[in-house]
Amino acid sequence: MLNFLFHSRRIGAEVVIFMVYAVFSVSWSTTGSLMPQIQAQLGINTQQASFITTSIVLAKIFGSIFTGFLVYKFGLKKGYFLGCLLISSGIFLPFVDSYLGILIIRFLTGLGSACALICLVPIAQQWFSNKALSIVLSLNISSQTFGTIFALIFAEAIAMSIGNWKLSLSFYAWINLILMLLWLVVGKDQKNDQNTQTTPSTKNNQKRKELLFAFKSPMTWGMIIHHVGPLLFLNVSFTFLPDFYTKYTHLDADSINIAKIYVPVIANIAMIISPYIGVFLKKKGIYYKNVLIISDLMLVLCSALMFFVFKDITGILITTFFAGIFSATWVPYIFSLPSEVKNSTPTQTHYVMSIFWAVLFSILTINMQIIAYSVDRFGNYNFGFGYFIIFTLICAPISWWLLPNKKYFEK
Fold first, then answer.
1. Which residues sit opposite 341 in a β-bridge?
2. Is 328 helix (H, G, I), strand (E, B) or coil?
């Protein structure tokens, strides 16, 4: 009976953390598909409209640090609960009419999403053994991709059926509110699994040791530098590509209608498939650094072909698929690294992921604004997409150099 309850609670926790970030990702990605409506209603330009999406990324910077503090003080369960609560602040969106008010609510949503995102890895580490962890983490990290695909296909239809874009975003916040209540039943704190005989002084020393490890580890910084390019590609796909194919290409009308919806969708479908290719490669013993560097270089090549070379819809869709594949093949390697370090704990993993996402989203926010500004400045995406390709190409060898070798991890 106890074994059944444990497995039921474990499955419940996995369903909640997957669904919370998937539903949030629908809300996040929806602003790209609805950008023309948002611009028309609020009377704002491309850079201002994209900042409604980017403000979430900016909030994730502060949210990542804040979540680290919460877990340091209160444990995983309470930190995750607060994240869900902040995500649900979107229920008030229909009552706000100003651009600033909308940015504030989206910022609060972003703060909460940082808590949800960072907890995807350490909560999985709480419940699952190392043998199953790669598959579970691949599924968890894919939650954003599932949400993005749903938004790209159905966002406009849902917004029209509900009434307008603000009501549709509020709808997703209500779903997260329900998931938050379920978390109170299935969630658990790491402190419950620790030795209760340990003195408070020893516990604090252990926490400080784990936090210092997260800051000093070359693994943390190598993970950050590597992930910049793929994350930028993901955000470009749902923020800018619908606008790019609608306004800035010379495709015929039918091809434009296909491209603005299905290019981002195909890229994200490929991102769902590719982590399981990574799981297969990992089981075959392929060295993780080889997978990372090849994936990055192929992402650069496919992106260049997709943005600048192919002018027909068939070529664009094919290169989009392979760009999506190479943007996430490395997922089971990278996100398993913190749990594979010798003497790793879920708390230490949480500190690593807090620093990882805080720094990463800082870099992402700056780069997304550079791309958005270049569109308003030059009247096209040539500079922005070229900048993304060069930036990713530079990050690949730097991450290779920073990431540690096999002896750093458990055998």
1. 409
2. coil
Q: Residue 192 has what pLDDT? A: 42
Q: Give the Cα separation of 218 and 63 in Å (integer).
A: 23
C-beta separation of 64 from 358 below 8 A: yes
Is residue 6 assigned to a domain?
Answer: no
Residue 196 lies in a domain: no
Strand partners, 409: 341
What distance in Å separates the CA atoms of residue 77 and residue 350, rounded to the nearest whole number?
12
Residue 11 is predicted with a pLDDT of 82
Nearest to 145 by CA among 6, 17, 271: 271
> In total, how many domains does the chain have?
1
CA distance 219 to 213: 10
Helices (H) and strands (E) in the chain, counts: 19, 0
Is 327 part of a structural domain of the chain? yes
Contact by Cβ (8 Å): 56, 89: no
Q: For residues 76 and 345, is the Cβ–Cβ distance under 8 A?
A: no
Q: Give the domain range for residue 181.
A: 11-188+202-405
What is the secondary structure of 213-244 as a DSSP string? Answer: HHHH-HHHHHHHHHHHHHHHHHHHHHHTHHHH
Residues 135, 270: Cα–Cα separation, whole Å: 16
Amino acid 269: pLDDT: 86
Q: What pLDDT sits at residue 195?
A: 46
Distance of CA 114 to the CA centre of its chain: 9
CATH code, domain with 264: 1.20.1250.20
Distance, in Å, from the CA atom of 103 to the CA atom of 109, rounded to the nearest integer, reads 10
Confidence (pLDDT) at 194: 45
Q: Extract the residue ranges of the chain whose pLDDT is less than 50.
A: 191-196, 411
The model's pLDDT over 52-71, given as tens digits with 9 standing for 90+, comes to 777 787 787 777 777 767 66
Predicted pLDDT at 398: 92
Distance (Å, rounded) from C-alpha 125 to C-alpha 132?
10
DSSP 280-326: HHHHTT--HHHHHHHHHHHHHHHHHIIIII--SHHHHHHHHHHHHHH
The answer to whether the CB of 267 falls within 8 A of the CB of 245 is: no
In a domain, 4, yes or no: no
